[in-house]
Amino acid sequence: MRFVTRVSEVAEAVDWIAPEVLAEEWDNGGLQAGDPDAEVSRILVALTPLPEVFDEAEASGADFLLLHHPLVFKPLRSIETGSYPGDLLARALRNGINVYAAHTSYDAAPDGVSVALARTLGLSGPLGVVSPRGALRKLVVFVPEENVEAVSDALSAAGAGVIGDYEKCTFRTPGTGTFLPGEAASPYLGEQGRLERAPEVRLETVVPAHLARRAAAAATEAHPYEETALDVYPVEGHPEGCGYGRLGRLPQPLAPEELTWRVSEALGFPARLVADGRTGEAIERVAVLGGSGGSFVPEAAARGARAYITGDLDYHDALLAESLGLAAIDAGHAATELPSLEPLAQKLAELVDVPVAVSGVRR
Questions:
Q1: Which one of 34, 44, 149, 330 has the fewest CB atoms closer than 10 angstroms to its CB?
Q2: Is residue 348 scored above 80 in pLDDT?
Q3: 94 and 161 in a common domain
Q4: Cα–Cα distance between 277 and 31 in angstroms, integer?
């Protein structure tokens, strides 16, 4: 029996890795071209929508193209098929290639672009987040005493209960639940028409907002009652590991020039030292951010970094970094994002039943 994988199912798997709710409002991720109900036989993961990427997809038989940079970034008033992006849109539709983008959603994901960059550069953890994103929820569910562990385990498996380096974090308060089953009810405890009092536990935990619906569904599935008493409400804070950039430590302190050379070697692209920071001081704490990270210079410095590695640093970004005592290295936009494609493909391959490959195009 052949199991069919559809575009909508691949999109759901990508959303598990890079939740679309983490994307910026100005971004345009998700399905860019294609049919959610279409079958998928092969996936190609690439950084940028380029003609040579489409050449590769067609040559390999890939019918799902997962991009980091969106093909359609801004609303289109018209589609001119003789120039970008209309030419590639027409090509995708003509050749049955479904195009999907995971941009700032993957930038801000717990195991996203900057995590891959930090690992490629050999930074040790725990890796702190430079600029947190995302929202938190508190989930509260009332459970019979004998079912608390089952519901707690279901919540944990759905991604709830993570605080720092700790998992399965819950708080449990015993109490008494009351309910009166109606004539059409099929109660787990008690009888129709009689007020029931049952020992229950108020089980509460935190959950990232983008996982709250899944966590609630998991708790309901594991709960024995016909109707589950469950509340979800907002709380202050950000989910663990969600946000832009990562902060870690080098295996050994390096001078700014040495670090620049190491970055070039690790990424396979030339990097430029644009700000020396504190002249003569060896660097150990380093912040990295894949892509265009000039606007995060102040946050990298505030987090205690002594060097900042990103792409697209301009003249004024360098001046600001210098004034903050921060060595700044422009390693290139594409060069700092390319290391994240392989981990993305590997994670996606674990969630879908079709082959997943990484494009050989290095830009």
A1: 149
A2: yes
A3: no
A4: 42
pLDDT of residue 3: 60
Between the alpha carbon of residue 7 and those of residues 33, 62, 96, 321, the distances in Å are: 11, 12, 12, 44
Give a yes or no: residue 142 inside a domain.
Answer: yes
The tokens for 124 are 């040790």
User: 């003509």: which residue's tokens?
Assistant: 94
CB 164 within 8 A of CB 237: no
Range of the domain at 254: 113-132+243-331
CATH of the domain at 297: 3.40.1390.30
Q: What number of other Cβ atoms are within 10 A of residue 178's Cβ?
A: 10
Alpha-carbon span 35 to 9, nearest angstrom: 12
- Count CB atoms within 10 A of the CB of residue 120: 21
DSSP 9-66: HHHHHHHHHS-GGGS-TT---EEEES-TTSB-S-EEEESS--HHHHHHHHHHT--EEE
Rg of the chain (C-alpha set): 24
- What are the pLDDT digits (tens) for 123-171? 998 999 999 999 999 999 999 999 999 999 999 999 999 998 899 999 9
pTM over 0.85: yes
Residue 89: Cβ within 10 Å count: 20
Query: What does the CA dihedral 147, 150, 155, 156 come to, rounded to 10 degrees?
Result: 140
CB 288 within 8 A of CB 246: yes
Q: What does pLDDT average to over the chain?
A: 95
- Sign, CA dihedral 362-52-41-68, equals positive
Which amino acid does the sequence have at 43?
A: I
